Amino acid sequence: MTLSAGRPMMANVAQVEVVVAHHERATLRVGDVFLKIDADQTRTDVEVEAMARAPVPTPQVLWRRPPVLALAAVAGTALGRLGEPSAASAAAWTATGAAVRMLHDAPLPPWPGRSPDELASQLDGECRWLIANRVLPADLVMRNRRIAGAALRPWTPVFTHGDLQIAHVFVDGDEVTGMLDWSEAGRGDALFDLATLTLGHRERLGDVLAGYGTAVDLDVIGAWWSLRSLLAIRWLVEHGFDPASPGCEIDVLRSAGTPLTGQ
C-alpha cells in the first residue's frame, strides 16, 4: 500500500473499464474479470444456464452475487464490430460457422423462444413507431417489413444464442475462443443466429456457411437482416446508440433486397 495526499492507495490494482452501460444493465472490466450488473435477474439466470448447456467455448463463471455476475475474460479478440471492417481471417469466420452449427445441433434448452406470431406483432409495432416518429421514411420501413415477412414462417427450433452479433464472438487466430452474452439464448430459428452474425458483413456469409456445412435459404437470411434491424432501432436510439452510423442498422435496411450473389 502507498500513500498519496494522505489517502491510502492500492498498488498494482487494475483500472475499471466501462464496457457498456445503460439503464438496464452495465458491464465493467477489471483486469481479466468482467462484472455484469443486470436489473433483471431472469436474464442472468438464462445466461448462466445457457453457458452451462452450450457445447461451444464460453466464459468461465467465477461467481454470482445478484445483481452481479463475474466472468473470466476469454482469450483473443472480437470477430469484429458492426460498422467496421473485420480483421479476422476467412478461416476464423469459417470456424465460427462450425461452432454455430455445433450449438444448433445441441439438445434444446428447456425454456421457449419467441414464436413467429409474437415477432410479427412486435415488428408491426416497431414499424408504426418508426413511421410515426419520422425516424425513417415510410417507404423504407414498409419495404423492409415486406422483406422481413419471409422470416416469419414456421421453423424447426434449435438451441440459438439469440444475440450472436460479431462483437460477442472471440477468436484467437483461426480458433473460436469464446461466445459471450447469452441472456437471449433459447429455442429459435437457426437462420436468425446466422443472420445476426453476418449483419452488416454480408461479404462474410459465404465463409460462415462453409463452416456451418449445410445449405440455407439466403432469402430468409436477408429477411432476418431486415427484421432484426427494424426491431433494434428504437432500442438503440433510446439507449444512446446510433443506428445511422455507417454500416449499421439503417444502412442494412437501405441495402435490403440486394441479391446475395457469390455466396
How would you summarize the topology of this molecule?
Blueprint: E1 2-4, E2 7-9, E3 16-21, E4 25-30, E5 33-38, H1 41-53, E6 61-65, E7 68-72, E8 77-78, H2 90-104, H3 116-132, H4 138-148, E9 158-160, E10 169-172, E11 175-179, E12 186-188, H5 190-198, H6 205-212, H7 218-238, H8 249-254
Helix pairs in contact: 2-6, 3-4, 3-7, 4-7, 5-7
Please characterize this protein's 3D structure:
Helix content is 38%, strand content 19%. By secondary structure, it is α+β, with helices and mostly antiparallel strands. A 5-stranded antiparallel beta sheet has the order 3-4-5-7-6. A 3-stranded antiparallel beta sheet has the order 8-10-11, covered by helices on one side. β4 and β5 (33-38) form a beta hairpin. The longest helix is centred in the C-terminal third of the chain and has 21 residues, at 218-238. It is globular. It starts with a strand and ends in a 9-residue tail after the last helix. The relative contact order is 0.15.
